[in-house]
Specification:
Strand order of the largest sheet: 5-4-1-6-7-9-8
Radius of gyration: 18 Å
CATH class: Alpha Beta
Bound molecules: S-adenosylmethionine
Number of domains: 1
CATH superfamily: Vaccinia Virus protein VP39
Number of strands: 9
Largest sheet: 7 strands, mixed
Distance between the termini: 38 Å
Strand content: 15-25%
Number of helices: 9
C-alpha cells in the first residue's frame, strides 16, 4: 500500500487541547495495559549499553504511556538508572507530572514546547520517538535522523501502527465501542472525558480519522532504510526491522547508534 501523507487533526495548532489530550490518554491506556512496546526493550537497552548512555530524551511524548511501560524493563545501564525526559510540541502537563511523580529520579519533563524537528542543544541524550515518526513527511523525517547524526546522538523510532488492513481497520471500527465501555474505568479519572465520550462524542470522529491516517502514514522498514542511506553518518550502526508484539500487533523499529568514540 502506497504511503499517503494526509493530515491528522491533532497535529493542527487550532485543534482543541482537550481533544488532543483525550487521544494521547487513550494511547497511554493502550501502551500501559497492552504493553505493545515491551518487545523492543531489550533492543533499546542494548543500544544504550553500547553507548554507555542512561539518559533518554523522549520526543512527541503525548501522555507518556510508552515511557511508563518501559521503565521497569530498561532499569539500569552501567550501574546508573535509565532516565527519561518527556517532551512534546503540545506538552500534556497532567500525565507528565503524574509519570514524574510515579518514577521520582527517573522521569523529568520539559514544560516548554519542544519541536522534534528542532531539538534544543541542551537536551542531550539518546532520542526516542514512539508512535510519532509517521507524523513527519519523508523530508522532515529524514531531517530528524540527520539532526541526531549531526549532534552524535543515538536515536530509536518505534511504531505499532502499520500500513495494512489487518488488524488496524477492524480495530479502528471497534475502537469507539471499546472506548464507550472502558471510559469510566480509565485512570486518572476525568469528568471531562465523560462529557466528550457520552454527551458530545464529536472528537471520536476526529480520533477515528487520525487513527486511520496514522496507519496510512507509517513508514515501512525499507523506507526507513532508504532514509538512512546518505546521512553522512560517519559510521552509525542502523538496525531496522519489525518485531512481533502481542496478538497481530507488530512494532516497526529503527535504532541508530553512533560509533562510541564520537559521542
Ligand atoms: C500520536 S501521539 C503519540 C504520543 C506518545 N508518543 C504515545 O506513543 O503515546 C503524537 C504526539 O506527537 C506530538 N507532536 C506532533 N508534532 C510534533 C512535533 N513537531 N514536535 C514534537 N511533538 C509533536 C503530538 O502533540 C502528540 O502528543
Amino acid at each position: 500500500m502506497k504511503r499517503l501523507h494526509l493530515f491528522e487533526f491533532h497535529d493542527l495548532s487550532w485543534y482543541p487541547n482537550d481533544w488532543r489530550n483525550l487521544l494521547t490518554d487513550i494511547m497511554t491506556s493502550f501502551a500501559v495495559d497492552c504493553k505493545p512496546y515491551r518487545p523492543i526493550a531489550p533492543k533499546l537497552k542494548t543500544a544504550l549499553q553500547q553507548l554507555n548512555c542512561s539518559r533518554i530524551i523522549d520526543l512527541c511524548s503525548g501522555a507518556a504511556g510508552p515511557v511508563d511501560s518501559l521503565l521497569e524493563e530498561l532499569d539500569t545501564v552501567g550501574g546508573r538508572p535509565v532516565t527519561f525526559t518527556l517532551t512534546d510540541k503540545y506538552p500534556h502537563m497532567t500525565p507528565f507530572e503524574q509519570t514524574a511523580a510515579k518514577w521520582p529520579d527517573r522521569v523529568s519533563f520539559c514544560e516548554e514546547p519542544v519541536d522534534a524537528t528542532n531539538v534544543p542543544e541542551e537536551l542531550d541524550g539518546f532520542r526516542t520517538m514512539f508512535s510519532s515518526f509517521h507524523h513527519f513527511d519523508p523530508e522532515t523525517a529524514r531531517g530528524i535522523l540527520q539532526d541526531a547524526v549531526h549532534k552524535r546522538q543515538g536515536i530509536g523510532i518505534f511504531e505499532y501502527t502499520e500500513r495494512r488492513l489487518w488488524p488496524w481497520v477492524p480495530s479502528l471500527f471497534f475502537g469507539p465501542v471499546v472506548l464507550w465501555l472502558i471510559t469510566p474505568f480509565m485512570r486518572p479519572f476525568r469528568w471531562r472525558r465523560l462529557l466528550w465520550t457520552y454527551v458530545i462524542p464529536l472528537w471520536m470522529v476526529f480520533a477515528f480519522w487520525d487513527g486511520l491516517v496514522s496507519c496510512l502514514r507509517t513508514y515501512l522498514p525499507h523506507e526507513l532504510e532508504e532514509m538512512t542511506a546518505d546521512l553522512g553518518d560517519g559510521g552509525y550502526t542502523w538496525e531496522i526491522g519489525r518485531i512481533r508484539s502481542f496478538g497481530a500487533c507488530r512494532v516497526t523499529y529503527l535504532l541508530g547508534v553512533p560509533p562510541s568514540d564520537t559521542t
